[in-house]
Amino acid sequence: MGKFRKQKTNRSTHTPYNRPSKTTDHGVKNKSTPKIARPQQQHQIPTIPFESSNRILLVGEGDFSFAHSLYTRHHCQSLIATCFDSATILAEKYPQSTEYIQDLEDAAREDETVNIKILYDVDATKLGKGGLGSGGKEIKKGGFDRVVFNFPHVGGLTKDVNRQVRYNQVLMSIAELLVNFFKAAVPLLAPEGSIVVTIFEGEPYSLWNIRDLARHVGLKVGRSFKFQAEAYPGYKHARTLGNIEGGRGWKGEDREARTYIFERKDGERNQGQPKSQKNKGGESSDSDEGD
Fold first, then answer.
1. pLDDT 10s digit of each residue in the chain, 291 long?
2. How far apart are CA 96 and CA 66, in angstroms?
3. Cα 215 vs. chain centroid, distance in angstroms?
4. Nearest to 197 by CA among 182, 212, 176, 216
5. Does the global pTM surpass 0.85?
6. Distance CA 32, CA 233 (A)
């Protein structure tokens, strides 16, 4: 596989479509035809909660396309990207992950300023605690500006006859996963670090009450905003259960999703939050953006 280079995002230019002028039956322009004002589409500028200088821990990566985009398109050079699966299972579930991982490891090997590590068998609820699933000393030393968990889930495959019972069990499992993730992630944050979690909009995701779960472990939502997958070129949403054979099925990157930035309640300043989001006391406001 060939060596890749970090790319700069280029704005595409579109030639405006010139609509033909209305004419009379004799081919003469009809000056009396009133012009109808058409509403102009406003393209929202994506919010990117990362800076190139950030030390970032990615938890629960699927095919590592998000980590790949952070490096190649957003120039984040200090990344620890982890997944729950072993290297063998990951390659079986997401064959495309092999290329992304190889690119990232090649970059770290060829450029001493790039500090990127790929870790397997990492449990989001055991980060830095020692033992199996903790990620070892690379994670335990902490100091992360961002700890990121995109689209946390426990998987939805079930053969249960009583689907409602299974549904409730999944909700309880998600709540337990998120609470334990928050507990494990907080000690790993730098003084001004934050936890970034992205979930889909609507039910059943809204039933997780992620804001309340975070409050129980001493966190607050500094802000939230619409997640725009196109802001991360090359990124594709990876299903928890793996690729669908033949490439069929829904595309997660096309669904409405929201990113939440969680901060400690003790009022420590969040490095990545714009000054406009601060109140007079210096603490972050619990605000939503991009609705």
1. 445 555 544 433 333 333 334 444 444 445 554 555 555 555 678 999 999 999 999 999 999 999 999 999 999 999 999 999 999 999 999 999 999 999 999 999 999 999 999 999 999 999 998 888 999 888 998 999 999 999 997 765 444 545 555 555 566 788 899 999 999 999 999 999 999 999 999 888 888 899 999 999 999 999 999 999 999 999 998 876 555 555 444 455 567 999 999 999 975 444 434 333 443 333 334 567 655
2. 12
3. 21
4. 182
5. no
6. 47
